[in-house]
Design a protein that fits this description.
Layout lengths: L5 H9 L4 H24 L2 H18 L9 H23 L4 H14 L7 H10 L4 H11 L5 H8 L3 H22 L1
Helix pairs in contact: 1-2, 2-3, 2-4, 3-4, 4-8, 6-9, 7-9
Length: about 180
Amino acid sequence: MKQVEDAEILSKFQDEKTRNNAFNLLLQKYQQKIYWHIRRLVIDHDDADDLVQETFVKVWKNLHSFRSDSQLYTWIYRIATNESITFLNKKKNRNNVSLDEVNSELAETLASSSHFDGDKIQRKLQEAILTLPEKQRIIFNMKYFDDMKYEEISEVLGTTVGALKASFHIAVKKIEAILINQD
């Protein structure tokens, strides 16, 4: 199936008669990418499903005011990232635990998840990623898994390209060290 351009989706969304169709096209184009972006941050399948729904509810409510000064998908990624961070912070605060403990809990969830279908190497990589500080983890996931350009990540996170490159480089070195020491 041919991908619809963002401009066409936005145009259709402005017309009340084609708004639902436009949103369905947007979901077809971005829902799976957003699911995996969120899933890599929160690990749990059910939590990721909930956050995808919350993300697209916000997109629906705010798409009419989208200003096109950024790309549509980076705007959606920003919403998804913020929803995920908010979720993780609430989890940390609700359980009155440190971020390290939340990351440890996420690693346990990963290890016991029936929805994780990766092999041993993928699991080790995910566990290594979970040891990173939150921002490095988000940057690593967006660059490594989502294959986003630094400029796009900069739009999503509001961080300079130079800072992103440095964070990604540090994250890669930490992951390499962990994977080398696991053998």
